[in-house]
Amino acid sequence: MLLRNLKPVSNSQKGKDTVDIRIEEGVIKEIGSGLKAGKGEESHDFEGAFVSPGWMDMHVHLREPGFEHKETIKTGCDAAAFGGFTAVACMPNTKPATHTRDVVEYIIKKAEKLPVDVHPIACVTKERKGKSIAEMADLKEGGAVAFSDDGDPVYDSQVMRVALEYSSMLGLPIINHEEDLALSRPGHMNEGKVATRLGLDGTPGIAEEVMIARDIMLAEYTGGHIHVAHISTKGAVDLVRQAKKKGINVTTEVCAHHFDLTDEEIEKQHFDTNFKMHPPLRTQEDVDAMVEGLVDGTIDAICTDHAPHAIEEKEVEFIYAPNGIIGLETAWSITNQRLLQTKKLDLQQLMDKLVYNPRKILNLESPEIKEGAEANLTFFNTDEEWTFTPKNVRSKSKNSPYLHKQLKGRAVGIFNKGQLVINELR
Asked: At which positions is Zn(2+) 2 bound (predicted)?
């Protein structure tokens, strides 16, 4: 297969040169200019699109097993491919929860023939109940790449201490859903002026920050690796920044919507439940802090927290709707618009957030664009304007705040595991 007119971007390539890439049996055989397709060889012209090592989203919910009415591993991977991701790490709040090795192996088996690598994140505690540690070593042997009770925090400090001690022995991070439940519940949006005007119970930023502070202290005490999931407040970014300066083993991620949207959208959009997520949309000051944290390296990775919900679950009053939005299909457009087009980060810096850092955090090998390497590639542009209509949703669910919005920049395809996926707009 010959892939023509591509501009490589990686940690050593800036996207300035145009090359052709020949792939044979899933391996990059040749990279050069003006390559000619052989007799019978499949050829695709990408018309000057960029190519990078395949992107990874380290925080998604694929819902299978147990909630296939929201998403399946197959439909979730379809959404990932449309968004330009060749790898995802999926959270364990399934049914049964991913707290035993057989569930980890089931997920891996279901995904093995799909063009997207699926890496299960296993539970920290049995059944995600926060009481007793899951069999972490066995889960790692089965293929788990991290541990989390995402959807709920590991609330008991002693349990978290033991989890961090075990994880440090296993060399895998603990990813915590940072929420002090006593401070946050029953909040339905960010606590602040907008919530007060709308008469909604709010979740204050300090509910996130208190739990992050605890986890940083426990990571320092145990030497374990704590990864802060979906960071969303200015104070939280400051905590992680100071912890990194002290040499504490802490990393973090931010969702695209948290450096794009504010809590004012809930008022503007008349209580549209597709703007309800957790952590909630915060203030403009918090959004600016997310961008600052990405720029100075405090925030390591960009993720989506892709959280599908069926239409009937979201078409209820705001206070009764579940938290969560889909995000895989739109993450690149938001990243492009908010970070690249505004010159906050360049393409190489964005590849750190999308390619290298997620895999480094999870101790996975990053793909490379070089002859002899397995072809694991993302093809994308930065200037195409397109509309995210329901027809263009690949997820089984359609709970996105970006529906019907005109976006800029699109992932036009991926190549992984010997499979080429071309993303056509519908």
From this structure: 150, 177, 230
The 3-state DSSP class for residue 265 equals helix
**Residue 230 labeled ligand binder:** yes
Neighbours of 42 (CB within 10 A): 11
- Predicted pLDDT of residue 393: 98
Q: Which residues of the chain have pLDDT under 70?
A: none
CA distance 392 to 326: 13
Active-site option among 20, 260, 300, 305: 305
Which residues is 50 bridged to in the sheet? 7, 380
pTM: 0.97
Q: Tell me: is residue 59 an annotated ligand-binding position.
A: yes
Task: Give backbone dihedrals phi and psi of 89, rounded to 5 degrees, phi first.
Answer: -115, 125
Check if 305 is active-site: yes
Q: How many CA atoms lie within 13 A of 14 on its CB side?
A: 3
Calpha distance 153→215 (Å, rounded): 11
Report the alpha-carbon distance of residue 142 to residue 120 in Å, rounded: 9
- Nearest CA among 46, 49, 43, 45 for reference residue 7: 49
Mean pLDDT of the chain: 98
Grouping H, G, I as helix, E, B as strand and the rest as coil, residue 351 is helix
Is 69 marked as a binding-site residue? no
Q: The tokens 């609330």 sit on which residue?
A: 155
C-alpha to C-alpha distance for 103 and 98, rounded to whole angstroms: 5
Look at residue 234 in the predicted model and tell me its pLDDT: 98
- CA–CA separation, 37 and 4 (whole Å): 10
